[in-house]
Amino acid sequence: MSRTAEITRTTGETDIALSLDLDGTGAGDRATGVGFLDHLLDALARHGRLNLDVRASGDLETGPHHTVEDAGLVLGQAFDEALGDRAGIARFGSAVVPMDEARASAAIDISGRPLTVFEGPWPERAVGDLEPDLPQEFLRALASTAKLTLHVCVEAGGNDHHVIEAAFKAVALALRRAVAIDPTTGGAVPSTKGLL
Questions:
Q1: E-assigned strand segments in the chain
Q2: Is residue 1 scored above 80 in pLDDT?
């Protein structure tokens, strides 16, 4: 069964083309014009074992906000499409990732109910070319269109780069576990309702 998706989205602010394979190795190229976002997408792909290609162009002269948010929206759409009816998946995933002095955790339910909760001391300064609120905007957009319940907690702070990267790696590992095929489900949708 192929769990892949290709999504394109063009607005007056951004033009994004993305391909996703949930059962990958971390391969692919990420080029959004926002260097630190590319770095975070690399972390998501590598640690989530996702083959992910992202090409984005946007109105960066106004700042990276539109590109970052729209990349999250498109990635979430790709997850939603690649997961299909969600039959046979583990559904839940969680992870804790230390990165030197920083530590972050993520918990995911592929619930069909979009919700994002952030806890902890998130960075209040830009990291590279990424404004301080944009990592959360990306994750919120991803969870919204992928229809995930996502909790992300910064458990220990320190270097802002490490904090954000630890959070994205935790999300990647939690996603990897949640989308994994669970042979004990017998191919059923993991819900008492029969759908997610």
A1: 4-10, 14-21, 30-31, 51-58, 92-99, 102-109, 115-119, 149-156
A2: no
Task: Give pTM, 2 decimals.
Answer: 0.96
| CB hemisphere CA count around 95 (13 angstroms) | 20
CA distance 11 to 69: 12
d(CA 135, CA 33): 15
**CA-closest candidate to residue 153, choices 92, 87, 101, 105:** 105
Beta strand spans in 14-83 (E)? 14-21, 30-31, 51-58
DSSP conformation class of 185: G
110 touches 196 (CB < 8 A)? yes
Burial (0-12, 13-18, 19+ Cβ within 10 Å), 51: middle
pLDDT in tens, 62-112: 999 999 999 999 999 999 999 999 999 999 999 999 999 999 999 999 999
Secondary structure class of 25 (helix, strand, coil): coil
